[in-house]
Protein 1
Amino acid sequence: MKEYEEFKHLRKEIDNNNPFCALYYLESGESFYIEPVFYTQLMGFKDHYADKYHLIIEKMLELVKKNKKIVFTGNFENPLTDVDNYIYLEVTDVTDALQIYAEDKSRGSDYGD
């Protein structure tokens, strides 16, 4: 499994029931999973907002401390990680709170035919 540079200072464990997702623990005992799709989306924010990227990581850790157990998922309606008693957050749940927004390039053109 890939080692995520931003969280290498934290204890990492393997969850055999969720082998594709990284599981990290804070020193104070709170835990969180990072799904690969979430991390890919996070890298998009790093590319576009390099000067604010550290704020996103700090907010993630703040949310973990507050909520105790979080799955950072690519899609909360269809998560890759299946665990009980965790809340599921998408990247925009973190970034919107910081007023850092992804540009939506998937919407159609404003021009008529």
Note: The chain is about 30% helix and 15% strand.
Protein 2
Amino acid sequence: MIQESFPQEINHAKQVGIVGIPPLAVIQTLNRQGVKILDLDEPLIRANIENATPYLPRVYCAILRTAVINALELELDAVFIDVGPGKCDCALHTAQIMKDFLAIPVITTKNLDSSGYGFPLCEAKMDLVAKMQAITNGVKSAAPYAIQPPACRPTAGFWGVPPRDFSILSLFPDTTHIYGWTRCMENKTPADHELEAEYNPEIPTVFFAQSFCAKTASARYLAKKHPHGLYLDVDVHTTGSAKAKIQAFLELSGAGR
């Protein structure tokens, strides 16, 4: 449900940014009007993340700081930001700050969509970087995913949110299943906390969250419950130490590439 009605100028918008996953009703309207959607959660420009410091403290996650940098630099007609249970309280505060320093409409939404689209990509045999890119690109369209690959037998799991630095994903085998909020993302139900909490205890799983994200609590807790889980949080860039941890974990569990 949209908290604020579409401003009049949105009717002539050519390019808008989204933070989190706005409701399908919003995406459908933008698709219908032929508006180009940019996912501000992704690093779309080359810029120092410290450029966000005048607006957000460093203890905010790299995703929201990236959204601020993108909003500052890109030519946008509006920003739609989800501040409901599928995102976080920090997004609400970020929206209020964006409204103050941006000269374009910043429209807050609450995504409570509950009709699932499925998550075939999360369970497909596919390079994990390409798989994650396909899932994140899917938020820009209200249509079902064009790719509907068959499920594979998993040998490893990745639980969590899409990382800011996708290079971390290159360490996983193609037979990795995705769980957590990313699975909710493909299902187009970002506030489905039951689906988000699911994992497979049969396979070694990395439980991931961005540093300073509230989801680090769930990631760490579930990693402790899992028979063979690794908890990991990463801030802006994936360090060599973090990559070494994942590589060793997967190789020792027999799930290496």
Note: The chain has two domains: 2-109, 121-252.
